[in-house]
Design goal:
Blueprint lengths: L3 H17 L9 H52 L10 E2 L5 E2 L24
Antiparallel strand pairs: 1-2
Length: 124
């Protein structure tokens, strides 16, 4: 406490002096002011869409929570089973509604136990 007390007192005394100083720049430059006005205009244009999106999010919130509660454990099981996603093609939705994830044809199901090429031999 004894070490921090002088530091706290110095900060307390320096605060009014720092607040009393005027900033070096009198205001925003023309480019900064133009960028600020541009952003304000975009926000005014987007405000109705943002409010509509907020309403949609409020409506869909309970359904998304229920989906996460039901599908969360199954998705975690799927993630544990699949080690490398790069060996699979993107998911496909079949006409009957089933979703399949096919393995890419250039990746074997299991690595071969024996080498596919014969080992090099030394001629005597």
């Amino acid at each position: 406490m004894k070490r921090t007390l002088p530091f706290v007192v110095a900060l307390w005394l320096a605060a009014p002096v720092a607040l009393a100083q005027e900033p070096d720049e009198p205001g925003l430059s023309l480019m900064e002011r133009g960028a600020q006005l541009f952003m304000e205009g975009i926000l005014k244009e987007m405000e109705p869409a943002i409010e509509e999106f907020q309403g949609l999010a409020d409506e869909m919130g309970p359904a998304l929570r229920q989906f996460a509660n039901e599908m969360g454990p199954k998705l975690s099981e799927l993630l544990e089973e699949i080690e490398d996603w790069s060996v699979y093609q993107p998911p496909e939705v079949l006409p009957n509604g089933d979703i399949i994830i096919r393995r890419k044809p250039d990746h074997p199901l299991t690595p071969p136990d024996t080498p596919t090429e014969p080992a090099p031999q030394i001629e005597l």
